[in-house]
Write a structure and sequence with these properties.
By secondary structure, the chain is an alpha+beta fold. The protein has one domain: Nucleotidyltransferase, domain 5, CATH 3.30.420.100. Helix content is 38%, strand content 20%. A four-stranded mixed β-sheet has the order 3-2-1-4. This is one of the proteins that bind and probably mediate the attachment of the 5S RNA into the large ribosomal subunit, where it forms part of the central protuberance.
Length: 117
């Protein structure tokens, strides 16, 4: 078996902890690149994405998406779309990313938008 990077080990550790205490809640999964940030609410049992938002959406504040302001805009948008899909409680899957900066801004905005986690 190939040796996993620190990022991949952290991602596996986070995902395992979510499975242990997540129960039947959908998962709010985050991906952060150097230029954009993506968020989606995933129902793992059905294997479907219930809601999604990213800085690639046309009307997100911040042109490049590499700011905490743009991440907060994505958080509000994914919360709105999740509520429209009937989801009010999720587990937050930060992947291998640290809960800091853009990831934290997105999470805080999603909480303000009405998602519980």
């Amino acid at each position: 078996m190939a040796k996993l990077s620190l990022f991949d080990r952290r991602r596996q550790r986070v995902r395992t902890a979510l499975r242990a205490r997540g129960g039947q809640r959908p998962r709010l999964s985050i991906h952060r690149s150097g230029r954009h940030i993506y968020a989606q609410v995933i129902d793992d049992e059905a294997g479907r994405t219930l809601a999604a938002a990213s800085t690639l959406d046309k009307d997100v504040r911040g042109s490049t998406g590499a700011t905490a302001d743009a991440a907060a805009s994505v958080g509000k948008r994914v919360a709105e779309r999740a509520k429209a899909a009937g989801v009010s409680a999720v587990v937050f899957d930060r992947g291998g990313f640290l809960f800091h900066g853009r990831v934290k801004a997105l999470a805080d905005a999603a909480r303000e938008g009405g998602l519980e986690f």
